[in-house]
Amino acid sequence: MSNKENKSIASIFGEGGRPKNSKREIKIVDTTFRDAHQSLWATRMRTEHMLGIAETMNSAGFHHIDMMAPIQFDVSVRYLKEDPWERVRELHKAAPETKFRALIRSKNIASFDFLPDDVIDGWVDQLYNNGFRVIGAFDGLNDVSNIVGCLKRAKALGAYTFGALSFCESPVHTDELFVKTAVELIEQADVDAIMLKDAGGLLTPERIRTLVPAIKKVIGDRPLELHSHCLTALCPLVYLEAVELGCDLLHTSIAPLANGAGQPATQTIVKSLRELGYVVNVNDEKIEEVSSYFKNICEVEGKPEGKPAEYNPLHYKHQLPGGMLSNFHAQLETAGLGNRYEELLEEIALVRKELAWPIMITPFAQFVGTQAVMNVISGERYGTVPNEIKKYVLGYYGRLLGPVDPEVYKKILENGSSEISEKPTTPKPMMKDLAQQHPNATKDELLLRAMFAGNQVDGMKEAIANGESGDDYSGELVSFIKELASGDEKQVKLSTENLNISISR
C-alpha cells in the first residue's frame, strides 16, 4: 500500500480504527430528479417519470431533493415540449413534505446573455410562488456581485438560501479564492448554507483535505454541502474525506442514475457512511423502490444506466463536464470530425489557459468549447470569434480572475463582431414590453418568453395543446459547421442545451 493510500485511510480512521467523527449525522441531498438525468440522460427525464415515483421519494428521508436548474427549464420547453412550471407545481403537490431545491445560474438563468433585473427578480418570485422554499445560486466566475441580488430577494421572501462556490483546478482557483467567496456570500447575502459545487468532478482527496477545513473555518455554524461528479472515479472517496473533515451534506443520486458523469450512488455512499459510524436517516427500502422503478424505465425506454468511470488524468487538462464531453464526441463523429477529437481536447485546454482559466461550467464551458472548435476547423486560431467570447473578455459576464493572453485578447477584439461595444452595457427591462406583447400570458409564461427567443414557447404550448411529445434534438452542430464553412451567412447561430453561440460577420 502506498504512503498516499495510508494517509487517506488514516485521515478517516482515528485511534483503534474507528472514525474520528462517528455518530455525527450526515444529511443527503438527492439529485435524481435534476443532475442525475442531466448527466446521464441528457436531461430527458419527463415530468411523468418523476410523478410516478414522487410519493415514494417524499417518504425516503432526504434532507432536500434537487429539482430544477436552468437546463431543466430549457430542455422542457425546447425539446420535451413540457411546461416546466407545471412540473414544479405538480411535484410539490405530489410530495408535500419534501423540500425541493431550485438553482439559479448567475444573471443569465436559462439564457446565455445577462438578463435585466426585472427578469431576475420575477424569476425568484415565481420560484417561490410555485412552491420552492430552498433556493440557491452560482456564478461561473465566482463573482458574488452577480448573485447577491437574487439570493437576498429569495431570503426576503422566506426561502432557505445557499450560495455555491464553483470549483475547478487552475493557478487562480486557490483555497484562498474559495474562502474569500464564501465570506462574501455570507457577508453580502447572509446565505443559510455554502455549497462546494464541483461540476467537473475534479476534486481529489488531497485537495479536499485543505479546502474543506479552510471553508469550515470561516462559515461558522452554517452547513457545508458538497456536490461533485464521478468523472474521475475519485468522488466517493472525496465524499468520505470531506465528511471526516466536517462536511455536513452530500449530494447523491439513486442508482441506476448514478456514477459515470453523475453523482455517487446513494446506496453506496449511505452504506459506507454507516460502516464508518455516521448516522444517515434515509429509508433504505424506499430508496430500493426508487432504484427498481428507474431500472425499469431504463429497460423499457432504452435509457443508459450509470456505470463507474475509470480514472483518466486527461480530464484534468480539459475539465469538460461529462454531458458536454459525450455530446461533443458524438456530434463531431456525425460531422465527420471524429478523428480530430483528441486535437479538440488539447485545443480546449489551451483556449482555457489563454482566456484566464474560466471554470468549465455553463456558460463558459460552452464558450471555450465552441472557440476551440472554430480554431480547429478553420485552421486559424481566433480568426473566427463567437460574440460570446468577445463579451467574455470585455467583462460582460463579470470580473475575470486573471488577465487574458495579450495576443489572444488583441485577436478577439479585432475579429469579433464590431457591433459589440467594448464597454459592457446594462440590459434594458423586458417584462413590461413582454406583457404588452402577450396580454393574456401568465407571469410564468412571460418569464419563459424572456429566456427563449422566437417561437419556442409557442411550440411548447402548441405541442401540449395537441397532446404531442417532444423529440430529442439532433444535428445542430453538424448544420452549424456546414453553415460556418460555407461563408454565405452573415450571422450563424447554434442553439442546443449545451451550446448557444452566435457569430456575426
Name the features:
single chain; about 500 residues; alpha/beta; 23 helices; about 50% helix; globular; disordered N terminus
- Poorly predicted regions: 1-6, 472-482, 494-499
Q: How many helical elements?
A: 23
Fraction in helix: 40-55%
The 3D shape can be described as globular
Strand percentage lies at: 5-15%
Quick synopsis:
The chain has helices at 3-12, 32-40, 47-51, 54-58, 70-80, 84-94, 117-129, 148-157, 175-189, 205-219, 235-244, 266-275, 284-301, 315-318, 322-334, 341-354, 364-378, 387-393, 406-415, 431-437, 443-451, 456-465, 476-486, and strands at 27-30, 64-68, 100-105, 134-138, 160-166, 193-197, 224-227, 249-252, 491-495, 500-504. With 505 residues, it is of the alpha/beta class. The protein is globular and about 60 Å long.
Describe this structure in words.
This protein has helices at 3-12, 32-40, 47-51, 54-58, 70-80, 84-94, 117-129, 148-157, 175-189, 205-219, 235-244, 266-275, 284-301, 315-318, 322-334, 341-354, 364-378, 387-393, 406-415, 431-437, 443-451, 456-465, 476-486; strands at 27-30, 64-68, 100-105, 134-138, 160-166, 193-197, 224-227, 249-252, 491-495, 500-504. The protein is of the alpha/beta class and 505 residues long. The strands form 2 sheets. Strands 1-2-3-4-5-6-7-8 form an 8-stranded parallel β-barrel, surrounded by 7 helices. A two-stranded antiparallel ribbon has the order 9-10. Helix 8 links the parallel strand 4 (134-138) and strand 5. The protein is globular and about 60 Å long. It starts with a helix and ends with a strand.
